Each structure stands twice: as structure tokens, then as C-alpha cells.
Amino acid sequence: MRLQFLGSGDAFGSGGRFNTCFHLERAAHGNVLIDCGATSMVAIRKWGIEPNDISTILVSHLHGDHFGGLPFFLLDAQLVSRRTTPLVIAGPPGLRERLAILMEAMFAGSTAIVPRYPQEIRELALHERAEVGGLAVTPYLMKHYSGAPSYALRVETEGKVLTYSGDTEWVEELVPAGRDADLFICEAYFFDKVMKYHVDYTTLMKHLPRIGARRTIVTHMSAELLDRRDEIACEAAHDGLVVEF
Ligand SMILES: [Zn+2]
């Protein structure tokens, strides 16, 4: 399975990186976008991704650097890419309302437009394994204030397991979320500074053996951690990075 980091940055453009957005290619059921941060439409163009080939967008939590690109993606689908195929957007409870607020704030009147393609917004229940566009997705509860539950997503597709932490400080829920995953993508913010709502690299490394993922890649690094990249003993993402797993 092939995944490309279209965006591997934090909310603040550290290192000139795009906001969080991963692109997963599948043999069947269409491709998947995992998070769609504010800059994601630019990243999609930069890496030559065809938006109409994306059938499913998963959202970890309702922060601008993780779902703020959706208004651009949806307007592009309607007006530029002239999408005709179904699109499913799935995320935490509150996604439907918060997306409507976001759309209206950014493009007034846009929620009145009837999509020219079948569009479905799904709100995923905690710990319930849901079938979403040919994926099995199980959300786990993270600790990261976003006005709605912030999720880590365990995604099963085509015989592989991919877990993405979203943003969170260390929580024990990361252990079952990532257990034995083929690919575990986890945020790491600072090198060793413990803070609220984000996990630091040193704490993550301490717990990694208990998670037992086959491969771990850290993402969403602060400027401080990016400066200390040479000291990281784990794979780290960068924009454009392609991984086969
Ligand atoms: Zn973030």
C-alpha cells in the first residue's frame, strides 16, 4: 500500500511545511485523504494528486490545520474539478455543524449549493468499528481540545492496518489504537518538553515498544523538533514523502 505525506507540518507552518494531509492509494474503492488541513488544496496541486480520484476523506479532529482545507476541496469539487462520483467525509461528532460554520465563514452562501455529486458526511462513534468507503475505521479518544472529541483513527484496508494519532498528549488509548499496526503515524511536537495536548518525541519513544507497530513515522513537528531532526531515532515525515507498507 502506498501513502504520501502531502502535508506533514504543524498549525503554524513550521519548516515551511503544509498542514496535515496524507494520501492513501488503493486498488479498489478510490483513494483516501487522511486529514485535510487549511493548505491541503495547495498540497494536492503541488504533488499532482487528482482530487476526483479521492473517494473518502477521514478527519481526526476539528482544528483548522486538520479540517480547514475542506471548504476549498468541496468548492473545487463543485466548480473546478466538476466531480460526479460519490464523496464520503468522516470524522468526529460535530463535523457536520462545524464544517457548515467553516464553509459559511470562508465562502458565504456556499452551504446552499447542492453538490453535483453524491456527498455524505459521517460522524463516527468512539470505539465503534465503522465501514466507511471500503475502509474499516475505529476511532480512539485522544486528549486535545477541539470543541469536539479528538480522535486517533485505526484504519483497516486491503489487509493492512494504518493508525494515525491525530494531535494529542500521551494517552494510554494510543496503545490499542496503534497495536501491531503495519504503519503508525504519530505526532511528535517537541523533543522532550512535556506539554498539554501534544506528545513530545522522548515520551513517545518510551511507549513505542508497548504499541508494537511494524513501522512508526513521526509528523506534525514543531520548529524546535525540526531543528533537532538529526537526534531522532525514528523515521520522520516530510512533505512529499512516499511510503510503501
Ligand atoms: Zn495539528
What name is given to the CATH topology? Metallo-beta-lactamase, Chain A
Given as residue ranges, the uncertain stretches (5+ residues, pLDDT < 50) are: none
Name the CATH superfamily assignment: Ribonuclease Z/Hydroxyacylglutathione hydrolase-like
Lateral arrangement of strands in the main beta sheet: 6-5-4-3-2-1-14
Number of domains: 1
What binds here, in terms of ligands, is:
zinc ion
Number of strands: 14
Per CATH, the architecture is: 4-Layer Sandwich
Q: Sheet with the most strands?
A: 7 strands, mixed
CATH class: Alpha Beta
Secondary-structure-based class equals: alpha/beta
| Number of contiguous helices | 7
Helix content: 10-25%
What Rg, in angstroms, do the CA atoms define? 17 Å
For the termini, the CA-CA separation is 5 Å
Describe the structure.
With 245 residues, the chain is an alpha/beta fold. The chain has a single domain, classed as Metallo-beta-lactamase, Chain A (4-Layer Sandwich). Helices cover 22% and strands 27% of the residues. The protein has a 7-stranded mixed β-sheet. Strand 9 and strand 10 form a beta hairpin. It is globular. The termini are close together. The mean pLDDT is 97. Bound molecules: zinc ion.
